[in-house]
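OP here, attaching both records as promised.
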Amino acid sequence: MKKTILSILAAGVLFNSAANASIDLPQHIKDKGELVVAIMPNYPPMEFKDPATSQLTGVDYDLGMAIGEKLGIKIQWQEVAFEQMVNAVATKRVDMIMSGMTDTKERQKVISFIDYFTTGPQFYTLADRSDINDTMDLCGKKVGTSRRTTFPKEIAAWSKEHCEANGKPAIIVVGAEGTADARNQLKQRRLDGAVQGSETLPYIMNLEKNKFKPLGTAFRSQYTGLGMGKEDPALISAVQAAINELIASGHYQEILKKWGLEHNGVKEASVNQGA
């Protein structure tokens, strides 16, 4: 009986190894034995540290670990400042970026992206601001957002299209150190409104109940991409295939549902489709 059980367990190990080996990784990754992935855990629910355990968690963490399991390789998370991530991939200090980064044409000049999630910037303000109930109410007012993102340019473009085009004063865009800083400035009433990713706003509103209110919906549609070196097409293909297998199996959708973001998913992982 013991030999039979051991045989079954061995067969299971072989089966899992074969399943993981169905996607071939480039030799230099096999030799290293891990994928080094840049992350900055300050963007819940995409990536953050559990306050109770200080362990990494979030959408990107869960999906990254699932990709590693699918590829049969260890994921080595490395905390990197967001503004240094593109350079870290370009100089091969890390293999990938998985940290809520928007795929843009400008960033594509340096690295490539596997687009695995959709999002967009969204306006919001304090719940008790009775004078601000619509996005147009922000014309001429101070709106803050992380200066490290594409959001400052997005706000300025929206203001030109909606405020200035209708004879209203332009939004005054204020660059903050991050989304948390923008929220603090909003609570201190140094800002009239703020912008952050539509995928993060419900999470923040749940943490600080009755503190904020959204204004409309996301005013741009964008792809969040997994950043990788342009000179490594074999690795790009392998990771893209892993994500698409996770989509086909339903595991990808389960991860998004866990975080209440099932509507932000993609039907298929694509490459460099950001605008």
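Record two, same layout:
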Amino acid sequence: MRLIFIRHGETQINVEGKMHIKGSSSELTKIGINQILSTIAFLNKNNVEKVYSSPTKRTYQSAKLISEKLNISLDVLDDLKERDWGNWETKTWNEISIVLDKMSLNERYEFIPPHGESWKQMEERLKVTLKKVTDGSEKCVCIVTHMGALRGLIPILKNQDKSVSLNFSFDNGSITIFDFKDNKYREIIINDTSHLNNSKH
């Protein structure tokens, strides 16, 4: 099975460099819509058979565009959602990084923001979700999710230490591909944005 991961399109919250609040109703900007539309030709060429989406509005809107353009089914999986930052949701990522960067890797992995979710807890639900997806009969699927979720997935997909997660960032509308065979994942491409050259308008 080929897994094509896409980070949702740009929102105004992304433009402002802020964190999305849980259940945010923020929609895609015009650029965000164009970013997702720019993935269609690539997804069609890969014969994507199904789209999976996080339930949040920005991911669902992105996934629905893909589903409608390719005329394929859309399945919402709650555990594809972004990490729950609890009371930290109103902070910018820079503000959060200042705190996290002072921690050891294990402390960071176990740390639970007030009323939120740890990296470890997010990783556990993402593993369950990957199992659900790869148990399917499709040969190629598209998974629309979030920056934090994608960073959480990287150590699982690459079968490497969790520290590798910190080396990656994911742009809005970017494409990341792993093939799954014989219970192993093989990296094809990570955070590819070559298709977005004409979407910045």
